[in-house]
Amino acid sequence: MKITLSRPEARRIALATQGFARKRPKGRIDARHFDRLFSQVKVVQLDSVNVAVRTHYMPAFSRLGAYPLKRLDQYAYAKRRLFEGWGHMASLMPVERYPLMRHRMDEANPWPSLRNLIEEERAFIETVYEQVAERGPLTVSDLREPGHASGAWWGRSKGKIALEWLFQTGRLAASRRGNFVRLYDLTKRVIPPDILDLRKPPRQDAQRELLKLSAQALGVATLSDVADYHRIKAQEARPRLLELVESGELIEASVEGWQQQAYLHRNAKLPRRLEASALLSPFDSLIWFRERTERLFQFVYRIEIYVPKSRRQYGYYVYPFLLGDELVARVDLKSDRTGGALIARAAYVEQGRDAAEVSAALAVELESMAAWLGLRHVSVEERGDLALPLRAAIQASAS
After folding, report:
1. Is-above-0.85 flag for pTM?
2. Residue-wise pLDDT tens digits, 348-378
3. How far from each other are the two terminal CA atoms of the chain, in whole angstroms?
4. Over 60: is that where the pLDDT of 256 sits?
5. Beta carbons within 10 angstroms of residue 150's beta carbon
6. For residue 171, with 0-12 CB atoms within 10 Å meaning exposed, 13-18 middle and 19 or more buried, which class applies?
7. Is it true that the peptide bond before 202 is cis, omega within 30 degrees of 0?
């Protein structure tokens, strides 16, 4: 029997599985909280843009509240609880998942624009590997011949391409040091030996397990949603998904307004209501698949980093704002670290929302985010239909 869900029910299931049904803890955020976070979201995307804060720090803040940024770094790298890999784009994942990603490393292919260059530079790549083995961990600049960035190398130096290819194929692994600088080292010196000793599952078994994890993280989802979560091609995901239905892991469902077949994870919970309030990074797993975001929240969202300034609709780096179980506003944020301000360069309320109610809740989140980042105050510029109410809410809070 197929289950039927309304759109609000699907939203609440999705939010609960992504960690938004619980109230934020009031005490110290520690490894136990990060364990729970990654058991819920499974994967956190990395990105180099640092306009307000680097994106991989935001999912924990959105769900848990303020914590020392270094504590997540320590959890990920010093304690080796996470590893960097190609999960959903460049990502942090629990280290126990490393064997499931091995088939991707074994089957790695360079981008077409770099294939010939990598073939031509195999001897150089081996010398880079030998340097890391002898002297690692290393950054690109630590190489004896790092090379210079050029258009022919996709804007990267020869040394960077070599290190990235060795990383992509699993011969090297990565950690980080200050200022988001990636360190490359031999995999056996980064990934714990008990993890490396685990059997590498066959490709289809690994894909099935990754799809199962994706379905757990999504709660209710279409084939395209589940496939996108760990970036598996839909045609490869389809037979594995049907196997999960046959095993009872997934239950067929229909969702109000969704044209595609939906699948409900058997352990998904449907809260009666949610009282979430959170700013979301553009690369948060709740919203990174924009088609799903529109289906769940009726919220059209596109990141405009690569759009010329004159053609941007909402701003350069826009954070959607979650209130209750809906996305009610969006705000373009920037950290002015010299001036000590979190700047809302633009703020917009969704149609039909109460601007006063939304701005009051958003002001609380912005002030919390500013304090978390060590910034002294929130500054609201004039762009957007929520800007003036938001500025008034910030001023009222400060008085």
Report:
1. yes
2. 999 999 999 999 999 999 999 999 999 999 9
3. 57
4. yes
5. 11
6. middle
7. no
